[in-house]
Amino acid sequence: MNKYIPVIGLEVHCELKSNSKNFSTAKNDEGEANTNLSVVDIGYPGILPVVNKEAVRKSLMVALALNCEIPKRLSFDRKNYYYPDLPKGYQITQFGNPIGTKGYVMINVDGVEKKITIQDTHLEEDTANMDHLSNYSLIDYNRAGVPLLETVTDPCINSSKEAIAYLEALRNIFLYLGVSDARADLGQIRVDVNVSLKREKDSELGTRVEMKNINSFTTVKEAIDVEIKRQTDILEAGGVIEQETRRYDEVNKCTHFMRGKVDAIDYKYYREPNIPEITLTDNFINSIKKVMPVLEYERKIKYTNEYGISTVDAGTLTKNKKLSDYFEDIISYGASPKDTSNIIVGFLLGYLNKNNKNISDIDITASDFSDIIKMMTDGKISNKQVKDIFTKSLDENINLLEVAKSIGTQISDKEEIRRIINEVFKENTKVIEDYKNGKNVNGFIMGLVMKKTGGKVNPGITNMVLKEELEKL
Amino acid sequence: MTNKLIDEIRDALDSRLVTSDELFDESVSKAYKYQDKFNCFVTILDKKKEKKGNTVLQGIPYALKDNISTKGILTTASSNILKDYIPLYDATVYKKLMEAGAVLMGKTVLDELAMGGTGTTGHTGVVRNPWNEKRMIGGSSAGSAAAVALGIVPFALGSDTGDSIRKPAAYGGVVGYKPTYGRISRYGLFAFASSLDHMGLFARSVKDVSYVMDIIKGHDDRDMTSLPDEDISYVDNLDNDVKGKKLFYIKEAVEIDNDSEELKLILDNFYKAIDECKSLGMEVVEVSFRKDLLEAIYPSYMCISCAEATSNNSNLTGIPFGYRVEGNNVNEIMMKTRTEGFSELIKRRFVLGSYVLQKENQEKLFLNACRIRRLIVDNMNELFKEYDALIMPSAGDIAPLFGNVSDKLSDEYLILGNHLAIGNFGGFPSISIPSGFVNDMPVSVNITGRAKEDYLVLNMASKLEEALGFKGQVKVDE
């Protein structure tokens, strides 16, 4: 039996956030159907496109984050085809000269790093939204002309797991850069998948099958797995894979034939004559580089290498930019990164999860957070106290530092503890006798001390002082 | 009064010899009077209160070609597919003229979607030549040319993709100007071939052209191909001395082995115009130009313009707006709408355009046509290093008789009949001005200058116009 290696390429369409559309002054916003549109978006005779600089800026951010080569001059092309969701009868896109080429993204699957190479990323306009009902269709032009960034990988992904890791990494790039809300459920991210199989020893790729417009990562995974299975079955039965476009059927978990190679559309690409070439100056590129945030991958490396945080915890902290930003904000006030990470990963995230909240629901200032961590690091309060303080503060919506004050800080002064221990001795003469009779009473006395102080004493110091005092008896 | 020059009309208005309402009425009544015979207009308007613009054009009526978007006013591009289309927005030129106080009196007939050079393919019928109704006015800006020649309006706007202003201006004995690409915003001009399309205008003198140009030129945020504003008035530079300016004409274009008496007369007229240039102190030299490139102008023009036209007119599907023929599904609706909405000639161009853009043909046809265009423009720019302008007969014939024109390539007049497209290839400012008569029909010379030097082309044309003596020429009926 032959072993087949899946070869997968992904095309990810991402709607960019902007005030106005990519080539018109209409608002880039969902809104009531057909309210955010201009004559340009509907393709009325005589209209002309004007490039949205903000969309270009955001696309360049992504191109830079993907380690792409940036062209010296920006140009656009027309992709011609007829469909009611494309009012002009052509889509303005970038065909010959994309805004970014030859980039890569690092992913990590089961602890193994892999470089996913990016063929290109290019800026284009979205189509209108269509609803096909039983015997009529509705068109909403609000989406027509929304800036859309399409990022295309090389066929270098070898499993559905890798595909998902790549998609998550890419989505996080969009989120870290703030260029899109990147919500697949709202159609802000849509994925075209192509899959082929090759024999282990072959260098040539197999015939590829494309599946278009999948709008959830889970479905991407399913579709890939289903398609790999379908192709494997065909090849093992001695069949041949046809180059075609298939549709993934989420209900029946299978793919259906849509159109074959002979029906492929000739898009008759040619240069958009209404947009002159735009020179991308070094100044402009540098001004973008300057405001770009440090991304997930780089932060993860910093957290593990510089802060000594475990890879898993670093991964957890950086998975969500808001969380990672919060973490960095806290440590900027002087808190120990590792202790901060322990409290966030070891306690806070669990708390949030249990209470169905997320990081944006927290209104503890980074400076207060840092103060509490510092007290813990200095031994003024115990790890348990920290958790109690946070729980009370979050449960009852009371300022963190006030809670800390009311709960009181840890007693770690040796002489103070010695005094308390001796008080306990006086109050419990029976225990002293038991001790003298050779009984182990350490645990019992510790309990009494804790009870007496409301758990505020530092357990380590107390234990040490207790031993000293017992020896004196 | 509407058959006079702008200066005269302005004086009459300012000294209250006439009101703008009276001018408008005169214009409209002439338009109606000539409509049956010459068919200049798709729409003749009622007077609306004009804006106070305090410009030289305040209160003066004019016409727009019916492929220029006018909010609330029917704009058909003389095509059935847009026969009921009422735009929702104003073209930038229309807005500027409105702000200037000029008064729109009508929308003029064109060859369907501005594709064609005969003035015979508009959906409302044939436009006839004011000088001889058995002859064409030419196109595609046919109605605008005829309306100015008939004295209905002192000026009218048109569009020029290959020669669509300058050719009908020549056949109609009026001035036709196509400025530098980007000098006038194209926002609101129904696109035919975007890289070749220019807004421009007809008037009865170079000065009148300049008056209007000074108002409608300039940068437009809605048109990325529009040029930055320039701090110069064209009218103020018309009287500059042109002594020492160097002109050239193309040897291969006037070297015709043909015994047509008409062509000889046209060339005689041209050489007389050259003599006038020389007497103005300009130098005129015969220059040789690669003949293979000159012969490739028309085919490459067709390749590029049809390719762009196919794409530009893909919006006319009956789905978001305009004429719709119902069908069982969207594809059928689009197919039927386009099949019924466009004439055969248009569909032929679309098929051609699609063909040259197809993956397997694009390199050989479309991209080679673009390369030829580039070579021609490079050669022109090389010549413009030495010469200030190209001077040529505007056409190799007088206005053709109806029925005598086919869409086929003609070997005889190939170069002289098509050289005006050079101006569109390079976006060069280019003007045709009347230079006399051959067989009782007007003929014209054309001056094409360096890109962005509109003022110089207008300056030289104005001087030559004075010397030739056809300034203000209008066809006076009866």
Q: Could you characterize the architecture of this molecule?
A:
The complex is a heterodimer of chains A (473) and B (478). With 473 residues, chain A is of the alpha+beta class. Chain A has 3 domains: 281 residues, no CATH class; 114 residues, no CATH class; 59 residues, Arc Repressor Mutant, subunit A (Orthogonal Bundle), CATH 1.10.10. Chain A contains 16 helices and 15 strands. In chain A, the strands form 4 sheets. Chain A has an 8-stranded mixed sheet with strand order 5-6-9-1-10-11-12-13. A 3-stranded antiparallel sheet of chain A has the order 4-3-14, with no helix packed on it. A two-stranded antiparallel sheet of chain A has the order 2-15. In chain A, helix 7 crosses helix 9 and helix 9 packs across helix 11. Chain A is elongated and about 100 Å long. The N and C termini of chain A lie far apart (81 Å). Chain B is α/β, with parallel strands linked by helices. Chain B has one domain: Amidase signature (AS) enzymes. In chain B, 39% of the residues lie in helices and 15% in strands. In chain B, strands 1-3-2-6-8-7-12-13-11-9-10 form an 11-stranded mixed sheet, with helices on both faces. The mean pLDDT of chain B is 95. Chains A and B meet through loops of A and helix 10, helix 11 and helix 13 of B.
Layout of strands and helices, then pairs:
The complex is a heterodimer of chains A (473) and B (478).
Chain A: E1 4-15, H1 39-42, H2 53-65, E2 73-74, E3 77-80, E4 90-93, E5 100-109, E6 112-125, E7 129-132, E8 137-140, E9 147-153, H3 160-177, E10 189-199, E11 209-214, H4 217-236, E12 244-249, E13 254-260, E14 270-271, E15 278-279, H5 282-291, H6 296-305, H7 311-319, H8 321-331, H9 337-354, H10 366-377, H11 383-396, H12 400-407, H13 414-427, H14 429-436, H15 442-453, H16 459-472
Parallel strand pairs in A: 11-12
Antiparallel strand pairs in A: 1-9, 1-10, 2-15, 3-4, 3-14, 5-6, 6-9, 7-8, 10-11, 12-13
Helix pairs in contact in A: 3-4, 6-7, 7-9, 8-9, 8-10, 9-11, 11-12, 13-15, 13-16, 15-16
Chain B: H1 6-14, H2 20-38, E1 41-44, E2 61-65, H3 92-99, E3 103-108, E4 128-129, E5 132-136, H4 142-149, E6 155-160, H5 166-172, E7 175-178, E8 198-203, H6 206-216, E9 246-250, H7 251-254, H8 261-279, E10 283-287, H9 291-295, H10 297-312, H11 330-341, H12 344-357, H13 359-386, E11 389-393, H14 414-418, H15 421-426, E12 430-438, E13 441-449, H16 454-468
